[in-house]
Amino acid sequence: MEQSEANPEFEALLLYLKQNQGYDLTGYKRSTLTRRFQHRMSSLNIEGYQSYLAYLQTHTEEHLSLLDDVFINVTSFFRDRAAWDYLAAEILPKIVANKLPDEQIRIWSAGCAAGQEIYSVLILLAEKFGLDFCRKRVQCYATDADEAALKQARQANYSELQMTGIPADLLEKYFVKSETGYSIHPLLRQSIIFGRHNLAKDAPISKIDLLLCRNVLIYFNAETQASILVRFHFSLKTTGFLFLGQAETLVNRRQIFAPINLKHRIYKKGLKLEIEDQLSIHSKSHRKPSLQPFTVQSHFWRTAFETNPVAQCAIDLEGCLVSANEQATLLFGLTLNDWNHPFHQLEPGKLLDSEALISKLNHCHQPQILKHIEWNTSNQTRYFDIAIAPVFSFRQKMIGLLLTFVDQ
Ligand SMILES: C[S@@+](CC[C@H](N)C(=O)[O-])C[C@H]1O[C@@H](n2cnc3c(N)ncnc32)[C@H](O)[C@@H]1O
């Protein structure tokens, strides 16, 4: 714990914001947070966290001004140019080469601020592969926790000053002169979906080929950084890349990301996730106070489950998804949001008759196999044999079902 995390008056402020305004800032580094709070308080001539708490309680819009100070939106086009040159020369061609001719390329700028980062990637892609390629093949997501920053990003209108550093040829090709500065080319703008997303809380976007999260992780404490990295691991495809900011180092408890180019902070997926990693993304309040150390055997079985090339899902007695291995996650496009969700509403659950599933939860004491179950997706039909096996506790009490989907 950072030293200033021990300041109870400051922690009371954070608790108030979390419980009354729905803004959870507890995962941010206290050193940065206290500086930002002090900045806001001195502009109001308020001294002391208790007085500021009273002010927040009586001024209903104040938390918005405070958050404006807390979310530091500093950004620019091609920030750290050398890293972008490397990305253009080495990484983007690899991403495209990994794809089938009409397969989509999915890019996520997480903590996009006013949008310059996502437009920088698109400009590089358009330079290499053409505007038409971007329009047809590239799907971008640009997210931020700060609605004001997102508004600017959506408008994509930048002042002369913000355009500093954009070479004249790129300016001419990808921007349109506007009354107040420059707007991004509408064809590039079309490939982006903007949205509010809190990295420390919300489920990650899945099947991403390139994830940019630059100059954002530095604001979080080590525990929150580690849990965000676990979410990113879920997010990235096996062949995907993670691009961090120049000043950032990975807090990798285990090497779940491995460097491709350390200088430019570009990583690929490393080790697979383990149960401890997955637990780190659940909020502290839901976590058991102390986790028993895993024995070698349980570690072995967990790894076997995760790495099994056959898709498997575990559901509890309430019929909710408790766990899915990596193959099931990829096959059915599951995300963290699906954990604890009624299984019959999820893609793999729809393959089974929901009433039959509930009856199996009540009466299935022997493994069963459902043969030749059809799964129609938008572009193909596949068939599975689905093995349904009851799971018993050591006391022989049934605790759920394990479903194995064997692709035929
Ligand atoms: C310094 S800017 C970085 C912008 C851009 N990625 C870059 O490197 O130029 C940090 C951004 O992170 C966003 N941010 C802070 N906390 C966040 C959170 N919990 N979830 C998502 N974005 C967050 C801020 O609103 C801000 O726009």
Can you tell me about this structure?
The chain has 408 residues and is α/β, with parallel strands linked by helices. The protein has three domains: 3-70, Orthogonal Bundle (Chemotaxis Receptor Methyltransferase Cher, domain 1); 81-269, Vaccinia Virus protein VP39 (Rossmann fold, 3-Layer(aba) Sandwich), CATH 3.40.50.150; 292-407, PAS domain (Beta-Lactamase). It has 15 helices and 15 strands. It has helices spanning 8-21, 30-43, 49-58, 62-70, 81-97, 116-129, 131-137, 147-155, 168-174, 186-189, 222-235, 275-279, 296-307, 326-332, 354-363; strands at 105-110, 138-144, 157-158, 175-177, 182-184, 192-196, 208-213, 236-244, 257-261, 266-269, 311-316, 321-324, 368-376, 381-392, 398-407. Strand 13 (368-376) and strand 14 form a beta hairpin. Helix 2 (30-43) crosses helix 4. The N and C termini lie far apart (51 Å). 31% of the residues are buried. Bound molecules: S-adenosylmethionine. Residues 71-75, 79, 111-113, 117, 144-146, 149, 198-200, 214-216, 219, 245 line the site of S-adenosylmethionine. The site of S-adenosylmethionine has 22 residues, from loops.
